[in-house]
Amino acid sequence: MEDLAEWCLSSKERDRARARAHDAKEQREAVSAHALDQLFDGDWTAAAGQFLLHWYGHSSHPRRLLVLTPDRIVLAAPPKRVSVRQTERMVVVAEIAGADARVEDPLLGVHRSDRLRVLFHDGSWLTVVTDEERSEIHMHLMRLSRSDADVIGTGSHS
């Protein structure tokens, strides 16, 4: 059936469909290569594993709100027991000092992705899946990388 649908498309449409399929395959491979398809590095004794244990202890609800401040990473979640409409009531469940961890987009500039990584000072990490491929945090990280490149390019950074 897929072959019939592809045959019915014009050659330009077929080329675009093939290019999209190829891009999607490369994106899946990049996600896997950067282990962004895994929740965390697997070490429950490292900072990321301990953070996850703490995080889940406050709320078992799968939805989280990730907020970046100048010196902190803040996570909020609905209350532990969620009933109708309580998912809108988020409470701060964890804060990570900027010195202890940073948020990064390992695929920045290579592929659009709904994945981010929280990288802890000890090298452990966890993956955060966003609601959209280019979340506000992704855009913020893109702006930061551009401004860093601008500063480095002018030779005015120390």
Written description of the protein model:
The structure is a single chain. Helices cover 39% and strands 20% of the residues. The protein is of the alpha+beta class and 158 residues long. It folds into two domains: 1-33, no CATH class; 34-154, PH-domain like (Roll). The protein has a three-stranded antiparallel β-sheet, with helices on one face.
Short description:
The protein is α+β, with helices and mostly antiparallel strands.
Q: Please tell me how large the radius of gyration is.
A: 20 Å
Please tally the helical runs, counting DSSP H or I stretches of 4 or more residues.
4
Strand content: 15-25%
CATH class of the largest domain: Mainly Beta
Q: Record the strand order, biggest sheet.
A: 1-2-3
Helix-strand makeup class = alpha+beta
Question: How many beta-strand runs?
Answer: 6
Low-pLDDT segments: 149-158
Helix content: 25-40%
CATH topology of the largest domain: PH-domain like
What form results from the Cα inertia axes? elongated
Q: Residue-averaged pLDDT, rounded?
A: 76
Q: Just name the CATH architecture of the largest domain.
A: Roll
Order of helices and strands: HHHEEEEEEH
